[in-house]
Amino acid sequence: MRGVHSAVDDIRRTVFKEVAKLAYEGGDPRLADQIPLKMIQGDVARHRHDVFLERAIVQERVRLALGLNIRYAGETTPVSEDLQWAEKSKKHFENPLVNIIPFACNACPPKQLRITDNCQGCISHPCMNVCPKDAIYMDKDKHCHIDQEKCIKCGKCYNQCPYRAISKIERPCAAACGMDAIESDELGRAKINYDKCVSCGMCLVNCPFGAIADKSQIYQVVSAIKNNEKVIACVAPAFVGQFGKDATPAKVKAAMDVLGFYDVVEVAIGADLCTIQEAHDFLEEVPEKQPWMGTSCCPAWSVMAKKLYPEFADYISMALTPMVITARMVKKDHPDARVVFVGPCSAKKLEANRRTIRSDVDFVLTFEELQGIFDAMDIDFSKLKANPEDEMDEGTGMGRGFAVGGGVAAAVVEAIKHIDPSREVKIEYGDGLKNCRKMLAMAKAGKRNGYLLEGMGCPGGCVAGAGTISPVRDSTLGVEKFKNEAMSRSCTESPYLDQLEDVINKYEINHHD
Question: Full-prediction pTM beyond 0.85?
Answer without folding.
Answer: yes
